[in-house]
């Protein structure tokens, strides 16, 4: 089941933000995240805030969801205006889930239209939706492209049937290639998402998945190490000894294989788990998160960030719908991290991307650690001499250890 929301202060029913949220806003990008909490089947490894049809219960419906989330977007525009946050065009929009493409393409376009109406879209805005291979058709992808979407991120995960079965993925591996083909024909940029380290996945299984993904010639590839989350079905299977546990050395070996094969095919890493053909193919929405932009998160359980303030919506779609119907904020809580928490988060995010972190942003103990990190082959010497902390390949494998040394804990 989905994990718990963070603790925080109560959020006001009118949603208004402190005046400090407006400070420097014109210098920050503004994005929108739309959470679609519906899935046809719950995958055994997933603890995202998602619900199958039989888990929804009464009080919410996929049929009326586009209307509800559009209402929150209109509410959000009003909140930002009344809070004194200057109006900014939206740089990126990301529909995530769940499986956004379980909703009709017309519904997703309707929500995008509301974003355009309330906030405007930048002329070169990146508009992405996640999609399962078996939840799209040539017609639905064309409708999305015609409605303003520019990018689709396809949940491939693996090309090997027994690995997909362990992950509870229901699509046929061959369907991924069709979905990529249809998306390209519609004029959409394409990303494929892979997961490595699934119990029972061999090195050759992983090579097969990587090479198959590359054969589709996507613009962008993400490869994430499988994490076992408490409370998931897969965690229970591992605890009962029904499947093997994950292995850190196996993860490292598979990461190195992926990076080697991606690089040989012309893909460059720009974040620890993400590779693209060129700068224009990077996921700008995720970069906005990593670089500290502002975003409004719409939908149940969605998180938002404006000017250092963070808040999160109630989790269950029925509770969310109730607040939307009442015209009150769907936020369940909010917080403003203190200086130490902001420093830690900024260092954690910036050191994960190829553009790196300015050494001037580090505290003195962090700057002193750089020489040792160079000697250990964990940061790029040339970048460090140019006052940037950029991870080497070995540094990417040990990103958490690098962060601990930079932060001296």
Name of the CATH first level of the largest domain? Alpha Beta
**Unreliable runs:** none
| Rg (C-alpha, Å) | 21 Å
Number of helices: 16
In quaternary terms, these chains amount to single chain
**CATH topology type of the largest domain:** pyruvate-formate lyase- activating enzyme
Percent range for β-strand residues: 15-25%
What percent of the residues sit in helical stretches (DSSP H or I)?
25-40%
Main sheet: strands, sense, barrel: 9 strands, mixed
Notable traits:
iron-sulfur, three-stranded antiparallel β-sheet, alpha/beta, rSAM, 409 residues, metal-binding, pyruvate-formate lyase- activating enzyme, nine-stranded mixed β-sheet, single chain
Report on the architecture of this protein.
The chain has 409 residues and is an alpha/beta fold. The protein has two domains: 19-290, tm_1862 like domain (pyruvate-formate lyase- activating enzyme, Alpha-Beta Horseshoe), CATH 3.80.30; 339-409, no CATH class. Helix content is 39%, strand content 19%. It has 16 helices and 14 strands. It has helices at residues 53-56, 65-82, 105-119, 138-146, 161-166, 174-185, 203-215, 233-239, 248-264, 284-290, 317-326, 339-350, 364-375, 381-385, 393-397, 399-407; strands at 30-36, 90-97, 121-131, 151-157, 189-196, 220-225, 268-271, 274-276, 294-298, 303-306, 309-313, 331-335, 357-358, 388-389. Strands 7-8-6-5-4-3-2-1-9 form a nine-stranded mixed β-sheet, with helices on both faces. A three-stranded antiparallel β-sheet has the order 10-11-12, with no helix packed on it. Strands 13-14 form a two-stranded antiparallel ribbon. A hairpin with a 2-residue loop joins strand 10 (303-306) and strand 11 (309-313).
């Amino acid at each position: 089941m989905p994990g718990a929301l963070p603790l925080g202060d109560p959020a006001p029913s009118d949603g208004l933000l402190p005046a400090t949220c407006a400070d420097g806003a014109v210098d920050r990008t503004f994005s929108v995240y739309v959470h679609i909490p519906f899935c046809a089947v719950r995958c055994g490894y997933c603890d995202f805030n998602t619900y199958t049809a039989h888990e929804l219960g009464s009080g919410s419906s996929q049929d009326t969801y586009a209307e509800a989330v559009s209402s929150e977007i209109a509410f959000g525009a009003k909140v930002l205006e009344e809070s004194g946050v200057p109006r900014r065009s939206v740089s990126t929009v990301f529909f995530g889930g769940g499986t956004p493409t379980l909703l009709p393409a017309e519904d997703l376009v309707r929500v995008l239209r509301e974003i355009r109406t309330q906030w405007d879209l930048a002329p070169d805005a990146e508009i992405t939706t996640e999609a399962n291979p078996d939840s799209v058709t040539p017609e639905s992808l064309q409708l999305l492209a015609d409605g303003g979407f520019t990018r689709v991120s396809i949940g491939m995960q693996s090309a090997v049937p027994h690995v997909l079965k362990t992950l509870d993925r229901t699509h046929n591996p061959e369907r991924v290639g069709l979905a990529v083909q249809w998306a390209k024909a519609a004029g959409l940029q394409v990303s494929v998402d892979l997961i490595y380290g699934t119990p029972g996945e061999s090195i050759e299984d992983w090579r097969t998945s990587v090479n198959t993904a590359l054969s589709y010639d996507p613009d962008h590839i993400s490869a994430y190490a499988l994490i076992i989350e408490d409370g998931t079905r897969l965690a229970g299977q591992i605890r009962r000894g029904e499947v093997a546990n994950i292995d850190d050395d196996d993860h490292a070996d598979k990461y190195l294989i992926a990076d080697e094969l991606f690089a040989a095919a012309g893909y460059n890493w720009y974040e620890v788990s993400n590779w693209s053909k060129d700068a224009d193919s990077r996921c700008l929405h995720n970069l906005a998160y990593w670089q500290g932009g502002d975003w409004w998160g719409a939908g149940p359980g969605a998180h938002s960030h404006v000017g250092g303030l963070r808040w999160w919506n109630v989790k269950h779609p029925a509770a969310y719908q109730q607040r939307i119907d009442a015209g009150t904020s769907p936020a369940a809580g909010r917080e403003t991290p203190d200086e130490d928490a902001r420093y830690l988060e900024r260092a954690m995010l910036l050191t994960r991307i190829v553009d790196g972190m300015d050494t001037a942003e580090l505290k003195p103990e962090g700057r002193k650690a750089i020489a040792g990190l160079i000697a250990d082959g964990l940061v790029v010497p040339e970048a460090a001499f140019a006052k940037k902390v950029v991870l080497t390949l070995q540094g990417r494998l040990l990103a958490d250890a690098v962060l601990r040394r930079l932060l001296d804990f």
